[in-house]
Amino acid sequence: MKTKKIVIKSTSGFCPVDYAYNDKLTITANSIAYEYKPYLESDNSLNVHRKWSYKTTNSIFSLAFEKIAVAVDEILSRDQEAMYCDCGNIDFIVTYDDGNKVAREFGVPADEFVDCFKIIREIIPVTEDVPEAIKISEDCDDE
Predict the structure, then answer these.
(1) At what angle are helices 114-121 and 59-76 packed, to 10 degrees?
(2) For the range 16-19, what are the long-range contacts, defined as Cβ-Cβ under 8 Å and sequence gap of 24 or more?
(3) Taking the model in full, what pTM does it have?
(4) What percent of the chain has pLDDT over 70?
């Protein structure tokens, strides 16, 4: 089956309500979209709603999507015991061209998926921040 759409969702996990959020990154062969929704939108601009999307016909983008689809299929096929931590969940939802969907929830740090997330970063426009859903520990060193 050929992958049509990949959705990666995450939640903030255990943290003060002022920083709590959920977000969603959606990728297809010719588009990428992101939405960040804070639980409470703050006045201090630290935790505000963000949304962006881009479409393209660039063949490099579609090749990257194919690599991402392979990496996500490998993640979905992992024989991994449920492991939970206070970092929040990461959900992978894949829609195939025949309409079937596969979804899997992981309660692990994003570093568990670093190889996949590094490929995704290659197609994120340089004008946008790295989505929370795919931030790994090296993104948080300066925060």
Answers:
(1) 160
(2) 18/42, 18/46, 18/47, 19/46, 19/47
(3) 0.88
(4) 88
